[in-house]
Write a structure and sequence with these properties.
Elements (H helix, E strand, L loop, with lengths): L2 H8 L4 H6 L5 E3 L2 E3 L1 H11 L6 E2 L5 E2 L9 E7 L1 E24 L4 E6 L6 E2 L4 E6 L1 H51 L6 H47 L2 E3 L4 E6 L6 E2 L8 E18 L11 E6 L4 E14 L5 E9 L10 E18 L4 E3 L2 E7 L5 E5 L1 E5 L3 E6 L6 E3 L12 E5 L10
Parallel strand pairs: 5-24
Antiparallel strand pairs: 1-2, 3-4, 5-23, 6-13, 6-17, 7-9, 7-12, 8-11, 9-10, 11-13, 13-16, 14-15, 14-17, 15-16, 17-22, 18-19, 19-20, 19-23, 21-22
Helix pairs in contact: 4-5
Length: about 425
């Protein structure tokens, strides 16, 4: 056997190489070398993959391919305003609600509204029929006119007596002047008679003036009587004292309405629903956060909507039994979508952090008083870091130390990960309301 042929049989050439490589011969130092011989040379030189040979001629692969990096869900630590809230529940109540009654008894002549009707302030609701009020008003008006005529007569009497008094004074002054200048010309009796007539005229004048005063006062009395009769007549008309909705109707036309304030005497119930109230019972620990004008978020589950409320008033007193303070929140309802009796939840802010460094609550692992997060570093390897926590909401937790802004933290279970493990991070949105691990 020739030497080059023996070299070929000494090695094992992979079958795929034998199938794919074209048959070729080269001249090497004057000898013809075939394809298998070339393959053996390439193996020796390190050009082809190294294979180990056993005596049976079976080839075993030496290298195992690496597994791909594990993909992990991460969230980026960022800054945002964070606040703790206290959730309180309450029932919507009307801003104002009254039963409209009749001031006087009478038959219901007309009623213009029914349940669900919207009315404006001053709008006519109902009217009563009371005939005796009409006659009382006419009698009061007649008495007033009679008193006014008496005043005119009294004024005429005052003018007449004044004229007589002036004439009597003039006569007396003349006689007195003559008696003084020429004592023997007139008898003293004539002067005395003139003085007596003057005194009578003055007395009549004073009486006439007093009569005028009485007549004028009588006119005032009759005016008051007429005004009272008119006021009583106005009670037969019932108007809306404020804008609202009729939520109950208690009587129909023709019914006898009794005067008074009992529920049996009511005609309709008027409710103002353009503004509603929520009465909250705030725990003693949260009272320092209550202030008038503070805006609150009001959530109505049945409508799946949130509304804006405002703290309008509070009792300034802690109930000794419940250790709570009664607080009222006003909620505007211009579209009347909110109904009295609906249930609502109010978020009362307690603590607020501005530009706090936060991570999802699912990223924080707690073990006793120790809290840690798993961070993906720049080399895509995991690091377990101990962190200090601040306030917490249902979705986010404040981190006061341990990580920096824009660090990537693992979200969810950490049971399959170890510090130092190489991973491929994938940032995902965090669902609201998830609980931390």
């Amino acid at each position: 056997m020739r030497p080059e042929r023996a070299a070929v049989t000494a090695g094992v050439v992979p079958h795929d190489l034998q199938r794919s490589a074209p048959v070729m011969e080269v001249m090497l130092s004057g000898h013809v070398i075939g394809t298998p011989t070339i393959a053996i040379i390439l193996v020796i030189c390190g050009i082809l993959p190294v294979v180990s040979c056993n005596y049976s001629g079976t080839a075993v692969q030496a290298e195992v391919p690496e597994e791909p990096d594990t993909v992990v869900a991460v969230a980026k630590a960022g800054r945002e305003d964070l606040g703790q809230q206290l959730e309180l529940s309450a029932e919507f109540r009307p801003y104002r609600e009254i039963d409209l009654h009749a001031k006087v008894a009478g038959y219901l002549k007309e009623i213009r509204v029914d349940i669900g009707d919207k009315v404006e302030e001053g709008e006519l609701i109902a009217s009563l029929e009371i005939p005796e009020f009409t006659s009382d008003l006419a009698g009061a008006a007649a008495s007033r006119k009679s008193s006014e005529n008496e005043v005119r007569q009294a004024r005429s009497e005052v003018e007449r007596t004044k004229a007589m008094m002036d004439a009597a004074r003039l006569v007396y002054n003349r006689l007195a002047s003559v008696a003084e200048s020429r004592p023997k010309l007139l008898a003293r009796q004539e002067v005395d008679d003139a003085l007596a007539k003057l005194e009578v005229a003055e007395a009549q004048y004073d009486r006439a003036r007093a009569g005028l005063t009485v007549a004028e006062e009588q006119v005032s009395v009759q005016n008051a009587n007429e005004a009272r009769a008119r006021t009583m007549a106005e009670y037969t008309v019932i108007r809306a004292p404020f804008s609202g909705v009729i939520t109950a109707r208690y009587a129909d036309e023709g019914a006898m309405i009794q005067a008074g304030t009992s529920s049996e005497a009511a005609i309709v119930r008027l409710t103002e629903v353009s503004h509603l109230r929520l009465t909250l019972y705030v725990p003693e620990s949260a009272i320092p956060n209550i202030s008038t004008g503070h805006l609150l978020k009001v959530r109505v589950p049945v409508l799946a909507r949130a509304f804006e409320g405002r703290i309008s008033r509070y009792s300034n007193r802690v109930n000794s039994s419940t250790r709570t303070m009664e607080t009222e929140v006003d909620v505007a309802n211009p579209d009347l979508i909110l109904k009295p009796g609906m249930y609502a939840f109010v978020d009362l802010p307690l603590t607020v952090r501005t530009a706090a460094l936060t991570v999802p609550v699912q990223a924080v692992f707690r073990e006793g008083e120790r809290a840690t997060v798993m961070v993906v570093n720049q080399e895509n390897r995991l690091e377990e870091r101990e962190v200090s926590l601040g306030i917490q909401t249902p979705e986010k937790t404040e981190i006061t130390s341990g990580i920096r802004e824009n660090d990537l933290v693992i979200v969810g279970s950490r049971s399959h990960f170890q510090p130092g493990q190489k991973v491929t991070p994938k940032e995902i949105p965090v669902q609201s309301g998830a609980e931390g691990s």
